[in-house]
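During the reporting period the student researcher (J.K.) took over the structure-prediction task from the postdoctoral fellow and processed the backlog of single-chain submissions. One of the processed entries is reproduced below for the supervisory committee.
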Amino acid sequence: MRFGIVGFGLVFTLLLPTAPAAAQDQPVDLELVLAVDVSRSMDDDEQALQRDGYVSALTHPEVIDAITSGVHGRIAITYVEWAGAGSQAVILPWRLIDGAAAARTAAADLSESFGTVMRRGTSISGALLFTVGLFDNNGFEGLRRTIDISGDGPNNAGWPVAGPREMALAKGITINGLPIILKRGGFGGLPEPEMLDAYYRDCVIGGPGAFTVPVRSTAQFAEAIRRKLVLEIAGNAPGAIPVAFVPAQSGDTDCMIGEKTRPRWLDQDQR
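J.K. obtained the following C-alpha cells:
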C-alpha cells in the first residue's frame, strides 16, 4: 500500500484540532452556490440573460424578504461559471447577504465582473465536483447547503454525473436545477428538448426538497431565477408559482444519454 509524504500529510492535517476554525464560522440560514453554464452551446445573449437575471433577482424585494425572514436573517452565496470538465471559475467569491444593502453590493460586483473563456463541453459532473469543495472552510455555517445548477444540455464531458451527484448528497448538500430549454432539434443528444427537464429531475437534482424550474423562453429567465432563489432561500415549495416547478422524483431517464451521443470532435477537445 502506497502512503508516502502526501498521504501522511493528509492524515496529519485531518488530525489537527478544528474547533477554533469552526468557532469562527458565521451562522447563516443557507450556503448557496449559484453554478451557471457558460459552455459554447450557450449563446452570448443567453449567457447575458443568465447573468442579468441573477443580478436583478438578488435585489428583488421577494428575495430580500426571503433572506431576512430566516432564522438568522442572512445567507451566504457564491457565483460560479462552468463548462467542460476542467472549466470552472468563481466569479463572485463567498458573500454574506443580510439585507438590501449587501444584496445591492453583491449584485453590482457580479454585474461588473468579467466572465471567463470556457472550453467546449457540458460537464455537470465537473461543476458538481468543483462546487462541492467550495463549502469547505468558507467561513460560514449554514443550516442548509445548496448547489443551484443551470444548463442547456446533459452531461457529456468528464465523469458521469451519478458519482459526483451522490458525493454531494452524501455530504448533505441539496442540488436544485434550472434546465434551459430554448433550443430545438434534439440539441445535446436528447431526441426532444423537453427531455432535458426530465434529465435534470432524474439525474442531476437531489436532496431534501430538491426541485427544478425549467426555462422554456427567454422571457422567463428573470422570473424563473427570482422564483428559484425565493424557493431555495425559504426552504419550501409552494403549491403554485408563476413558472413551472418540478419536484425531485425517480424516473427511467437514461443518465448516460449525453455521453452516448457525444460528438467525436468533443472527444478530441477534451484530450
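The committee noted the following: The mean pLDDT is 81.
J.K. will present the remaining backlog at the next meeting.
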